[in-house]
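ok new one. same drill as before - structure tokens go in, u give me an amino acid for every spot. 154 of them this time. try not to just spam alanines like last time pls lmao
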């Protein structure tokens, strides 16, 4: 997919990732630390993580097409492209985190008690992956914005 209605597909798809990945991370952390939220949102988090994982290679592929459509590249655009290629690993980690939270949910529902160690490990995993994913989305997006619009001064 290269264009949609004449616009580069990357410009459209990237907005889904920019919203979906941090939202999934935040909801995943919330579900890990708060059982009431887990009961309500755990399957939504798994769904969001799966959609994010599907959209990531589509977005990077569209980005590669856009990147290759220009004969020269600035250093910041190359940085954006390199960082963007790493997003697939963060998307995979986000799905792993969502599945771990779902495992915690299922285990709690089936046994009415979850070992504290399991809950702590899932919570730590959720926080680490959630924060790392959000930071990486910001880093990728910042480099892309700077490549497109230049340095924005305050």
């Amino acid at each position: 997919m290269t264009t949609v209605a004449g616009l580069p597909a990357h410009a459209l798809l990237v907005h889904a990732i920019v919203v979906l990945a941090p939202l999934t991370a935040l909801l995943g952390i919330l579900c890990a630390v708060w059982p009431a939220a887990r009961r309500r949102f755990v399957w939504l988090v798994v769904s969001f993580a799966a959609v994010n994982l599907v959209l990531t290679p589509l977005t990077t592929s569209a980005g590669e097409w856009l990147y290759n459509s220009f004969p020269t590249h600035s250093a910041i655009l190359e940085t954006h492209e390199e960082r963007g290629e790493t997003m697939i690993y963060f998307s995979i980690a986000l799905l792993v985190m969502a599945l771990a939270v779902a495992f915690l949910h299922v285990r709690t529902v089936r046994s009415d008690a979850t070992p504290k160690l399991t809950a702590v490990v899932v919570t730590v995993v959720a926080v680490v992956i959630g924060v790392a994913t959000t930071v990486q989305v910001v880093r990728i997006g910042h480099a892309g914005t700077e490549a497109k619009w230049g340095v924005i001064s305050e």
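The longest helix spans residues 35-68. and btw Helices lie at 9-33, 35-68, 75-85, 87-111, 116-149.
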